Amino acid sequence: MNRPPRDHLLRALVLGLLLTAWFGLIYGGANYLTGLRALRIRIHFDWELGLPFLPPAVLGYLSIIPLFGLSPFVLHSRREIEALAATLAAVIFAGGLSFLLVPAQAAYPAPPVLGRWSTLVGFARSCALQYNMLPSLHVALGVACVSSYSRDARARTKALLWSWSALLALSTLALHQHHVADVAAGLALGLAVERSIYRRFTRRPAPLSA
After folding, report:
1. How far is it, in rounded angstroms, from Cα 71 to Cα 65?
2. Most exposed of 18, 76, 82, 204 (fewest Cβ within 10 Å)?
3. Is residue 114 a contact partner of residue 57, using CB atoms and an 8 Å limit?
4. Cβ distance 20 to 84 under 8 Å?
5. How confident is residue 205, by pLDDT bands cut at 50, 70 and 90?
6. What does each C-alpha distance from 108 to 57, 179, 190 come to in angstroms?
7. Tens digits of residue pLDDT in 29-69
8. What would the DSSP string read from start to end of the chain?
9. 69-103 pLDDT per residue, tens
10. What pLDDT score does 210 carry?
11. pLDDT in tens, 108-153
């Protein structure tokens, strides 16, 4: 993997900072507004409450950070970087609207003593907030990135990227951060927005017929 030009890295960094601010505004704002309301909608199945809590899954959960960081190394043009940023911004906005329309809260029992994993799991929980459940933005953002990255990738690389996406999704369940409906909705949202925004703005012109 070649090191991208400095201006490409800088553009990705600036867009990343803007997306972080946008995420904080929408994600934090939705959580705050939901906290002012008493209504909570049930989004889980009873059997989900028996899913084991697996603290080591936090490593997969937090791997979304390096997944974001791959963008300037995988996407080589300005159009691709900006299209991904627009895609992620739209995912965040759509997720925020859904959080307000479907006010929910995780129904899992309190986790056991975490021991050596307490710091990492505590950090993950502090980022996830309390009420932003459906869809899982963790899944939606991860899927949008992986779908964008894998567009021109070789078969083996695609398999690795989608395995990474599956790990992210499963980690949200293993950490009791989300329910199955959240994961399914996140998958659908990530794929839909990536196809409607990223692929639209990075579409290559059809070759001229002879």
Report:
1. 11
2. 204
3. no
4. no
5. low
6. 16, 9, 25
7. 999 999 999 999 999 999 999 999 999 999 999 999 999 99
8. -PPPPHHHHHHHHHHHHHHHHHHHHHHHHHHHHHHT---------GGGGGSPP-GGGHHHHHTHHHHHHTHHHH--SHHHHHHHHHHHHHHHHHHHHHHHHS-----PPPP---GGGHHHHHHHHHHH-SS--SS-HHHHHHHHHHHHHTTT--HHHHHHHHHHHHHHHHHHHHTTS--HHHHHHHHHHHHHHIIIIIHHHTPPPPPPP-
9. 999 999 999 999 999 999 999 999 999 999 999 99
10. 42
11. 988 776 788 889 998 998 888 889 999 999 999 999 999 999 988 8
- Cα atoms found within 13 Å of the Cα of residue 184, Cβ hemisphere only: 5
26: its two tokens? 């929408």
- pLDDT for position 204: 66
Residue 206, both tokens: 């059809």
Bond preceding residue 135 cis, omega within 30 of 0: yes
Residue 44 CA to its chain's centroid (Å): 20
Both tokens of 59, joined, read 């490593």
- pTM more than 0.70: yes
- Give the Cα separation of 188 and 107 in Å (integer): 22
Distances (CA, A) of 175 to 7, 41, 75, 78, 128: 38, 21, 31, 36, 11
